[in-house]
């Protein structure tokens, strides 16, 4: 019994610490977060108390209003914390991969399946919507990366739809904060077993490429790489 109580106390302390850290991070980007949360909590509680006095049940409405105020405060805090996090991630290399890692169950993400020397990168997500290629970097350069990767996917898994998304704030691009929503809006056309089979095929291809034997020592003079060979990621 004591062990269970100790574990529960540790879990609660961990949650409180995480909330505190999230608040500190949010406050760096949103200086008014404290005032906003206080206004939401006090305002919500005040409305329920006023209704309670009007109908003659201030205690009951006060207790109910306190619970609603805590819920409303938590919702507002979550949204503003998410907005602050996206604001700090915006424009950072690998930001799209971080969002994809937290897209939710049913999706398998593989970061940096293609990359060029300018650090433009393409990530891959596989779910019931099919394959989604997510590119971040210079819009003009990533189009070439996307086209090559999409061609490869169509050749390997021709029966699976392949979508492509470019993360950014320009025309035809998807903002980082809307990336998760965009992927979840794609129509679901695959079943669970089909998603598993697709991941297995892509994983097998990756293992095959990583285990491919390469000649040791310097390349013989005059020898050229064959056209269409694997490109560096």
UniProtKB/TrEMBL annotation:
- Swiss-Prot/TrEMBL keywords: Membrane, Transmembrane, Transmembrane helix
**Annotated protein name in UniProt:** DUF4191 domain-containing protein
Keyword Membrane part of the UniProt annotation: yes
Which InterPro entries is this protein grouped with?
A: DUF4191 (IPR025445)
Top-rank taxon, per record: Bacteria
Q: Where are the transmembrane segments?
A: 33-53, 59-78
According to the UniProt record, where is the region Disordered? 210-233
């Amino acid at each position: 019994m004591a062990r269970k109580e100790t574990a529960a106390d540790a879990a609660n302390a961990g949650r409180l610490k995480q909330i505190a850290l999230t608040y500190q991070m949010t406050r760096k980007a949103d200086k008014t977060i404290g005032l906003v949360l206080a206004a939401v909590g006090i305002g919500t509680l005040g409305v329920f108390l006023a209704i309670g006095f009007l109908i003659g049940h201030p205690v009951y409405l006060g207790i109910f209003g306190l619970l609603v105020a805590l819920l409303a405060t938590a919702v507002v805090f979550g949204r503003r914390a998410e907005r602050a996090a996206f604001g700090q991630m915006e424009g950072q290399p690998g930001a799209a991969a971080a969002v994809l890692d937290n897209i939710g169950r049913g999706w398998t993400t593989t970061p940096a399946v293609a990359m060029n020397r300018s650090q433009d990168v393409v990530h891959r997500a596989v779910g019931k919507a099919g394959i989604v290629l997510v590119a971040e970097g210079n819009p003009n350069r990533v189009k070439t990366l996307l086209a090559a990767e999409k061609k490869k996917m169509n050749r390997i898994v021709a029966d699976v739809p392949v979508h492509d998304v470019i993360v950014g704030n320009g025309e035809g691009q998807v903002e980082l904060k809307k990336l998760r929503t965009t992927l979840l809006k794609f129509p679901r056309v695959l079943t669970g077993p089909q998603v598993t089979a697709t991941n297995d095929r892509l994983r097998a291809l990756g293992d095959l490429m990583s285990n491919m034997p390469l000649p040791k020592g310097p390349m013989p003079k005059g020898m050229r790489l064959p056209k269409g060979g694997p490109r560096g990621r």
